[in-house]
Recover the amino acids of this structure.
């Protein structure tokens, strides 16, 4: 018996949209690339407009969702010292996984040698932006204008202000209780907005994938096949081995169950290539499918989307070795140790900087004396790999959130193992809002 479209799960709908968009993009590029009408009104018109509206809608939810959920979680804490312990655990885990990621990448690249014999020459130059100093980043954690921080989408500043605001609400007695109830209501409304957007998500994903695969240069992937394949394999190993091992060791939870419930968030991360844009879906996943308390998820997920750069760290490790080999430059053990340290610290030091992946790679290449023009060698395939990197980063955010929540006794294990938990998405009846 054939199901009606509305009876399929969100995961199935998004997967169908993704595959259909990919096929549409490839077919359009193959058979209609010279058709001006299709290019102007379909690819750069309809697909581009709907895809960008979808991305903008996701980003629209990020700032109010982060602010309301962190305020709700922080104001409910009975002991403010809990926040310090929570922050230390989260930050330590994110930095540890990043260090493991880049170490794994460098070791794999040294074994496989993707750049040996390539003898490639950069066809374009790359102008690197200056990464901010660590002292500057620490100063800018604290907003001098919280409204401006929200308007510009500065995630770390929003987190700091929301935490301080939440603590103040908890300390304000009866007046604080009134404000806390208001934010609880606002948080419920924000989750309803997320549910509303999920109803149109498959169509947005279809348009994003259709537009993307009419522009990806497949010839670039072929010319860099060894680099592309190695980086893809290391990303998958990190997601399937590193994260799952940490989850099993620190929580005893089933990695199989964890991965099976990651599908929605991973697919959204892959299709949008943006950790920030995926925050609403990631928070919904860890809260409703994994059973993590909102007071934990509201802190770890936004922080992870900003500083958890495991996928980017893996790219830096593989790209550094690849570029060195392609240009015939020998790197010493101390150089590789320097790469590991620089990339790990840079995952915090470059938070919030546009083009963070290329900024971090430029920092690493400068550190070990490799030519910055080497970045141009890998830029041709970076867009597709960036989608995979984002999915890996999101998986890391969820794994760390589960570990921290379990250690704080803020996770419902029954929900985690319930295969039906969070599966049925909330539908919006636009004919009967109330």
């Amino acid at each position: 018996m054939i199901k009606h479209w509305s009876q399929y799960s969100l995961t199935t709908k998004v997967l169908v949209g993704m595959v259909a968009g990919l096929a549409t993009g490839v077919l359009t590029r193959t058979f209609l690339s010279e058709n001006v009408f299709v290019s102007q009104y379909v690819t750069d018109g309809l697909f581009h407009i709907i895809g960008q509206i979808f991305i903008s809608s996701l980003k629209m939810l990020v700032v109010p969702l982060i602010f309301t959920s962190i305020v709700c979680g922080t104001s409910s804490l009975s002991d403010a010292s809990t926040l310090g312990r929570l922050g230390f655990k989260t930050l330590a885990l994110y930095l540890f996984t990043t260090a493991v990621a880049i170490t794994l990448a460098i070791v794999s690249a040294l074994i496989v040698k993707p750049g040996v014999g390539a003898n490639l020459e950069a066809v374009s130059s790359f102008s690197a932006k200056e990464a901010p100093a660590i002292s500057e980043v620490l100063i800018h954690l604290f907003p001098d204008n919280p409204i401006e921080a929200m308007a510009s989408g500065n995630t770390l500043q929003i987190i700091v202000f929301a935490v301080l605001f939440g603590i103040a609400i908890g300390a304000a007695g009866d007046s604080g209780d009134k404000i806390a109830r208001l934010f609880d209501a606002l948080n419920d409304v924000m989750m309803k907005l997320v549910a509303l957007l999920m109803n149109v998500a498959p169509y947005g994903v279809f348009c994003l994938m259709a537009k993307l695969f009419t522009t990806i240069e497949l010839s670039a992937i072929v010319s860099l096949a060894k680099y592309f394949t190695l980086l893809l394999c290391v990303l998958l190993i990190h997601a399937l081995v590193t994260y799952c091992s940490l989850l099993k060791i620190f929580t005893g939870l089933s990695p199989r169950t964890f991965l099976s419930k990651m599908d929605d968030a991973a697919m959204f991360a892959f299709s949008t290539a943006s950790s920030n844009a995926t925050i609403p879906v990631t928070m919904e996943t860890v809260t409703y499918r994994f059973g993590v308390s909102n007071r934990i998820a509201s802190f770890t997920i936004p922080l992870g989307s900003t500083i958890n750069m495991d996928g980017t760290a893996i790219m830096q490790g593989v790209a550094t070795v690849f570029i060195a080999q392609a240009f015939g430059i020998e790197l010493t053990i101390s150089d590789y140790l320097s790469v590991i340290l620089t990339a790990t610290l840079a995952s915090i030091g470059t938070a919030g900087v546009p083009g963070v992946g290329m900024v971090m790679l430029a920092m690493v290449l400068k550190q070990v004396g490799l030519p910055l023009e080497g970045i141009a060698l890998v830029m041709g395939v970076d867009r597709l790999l960036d989608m995979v990197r984002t999915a890996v980063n999101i998986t890391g955010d969820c794994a760390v959130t589960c570990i921290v929540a379990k250690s704080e006794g803020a996770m419902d294990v029954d929900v985690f193992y319930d295969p039906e938990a969070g599966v049925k998405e909330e539908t919006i009846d636009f004919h009967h809002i109330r």
